[in-house]
Amino acid sequence: MIRPSRGFTIVELLIVIVVIGILASIVAVSWSSVVKSSADSARAADVKQWASTFDLYKSRYSTYPAFTAGTYCIGEGFKNNLCGKTVGGLPAVTTATTAIHQEVKKVGDLPKNGGPVAANTFQGPFIIVRKPAPVGSTQAIEIEILNYFERGYNCAANGMVTSTGANSAVFPNTGDTSVVVCYILKATTYSFSP
Length: 194
Hints:
Layout: H1 10-61, E1 70-73, E2 82-85, E3 92-94, H2 98-104, E4 122-123, E5 126-130, E6 138-150, E7 161-162, E8 179-191
Antiparallel strand pairs: 1-5, 2-3, 2-4, 5-6, 6-8, 7-8
């Protein structure tokens, strides 16, 4: 004689629901880390593309562009035309001047910034231009190409340097530990007629 099936007991249903819940939470945590990692990869690509653009400029003109010392957004598409901390609190860096973009465009199109805003607040990339005092008939130019990354990002493992200490007063994330700032330094010395 064939017995009719009884279906699932409440205990069996609860076990299945708990297992599905555990699997869903594992997938959610893994997905969040994949999204964070891909966003940081896009930000690193932005920095490296700009570094390559500046290298191309130097190979053509034997020096990096002689911008006025200061901090500038580079590229386009910034929220409210600002980079740096774009929401509340600390000031944001102003957008890049047309002069900077025009100078860099001499060697090709501007790189497209693909990295999203870090920690829902910080947007880059940007540059810090330094021009130490001239020595004799030579002038040095230093350009740091920086971007913001999510906390825990390893700059060194990705071919960049972690920006700390003296630099932290220059760009607008002073005292904020929700992001890491990484950079690539481009430096050159050129001669001029005194």
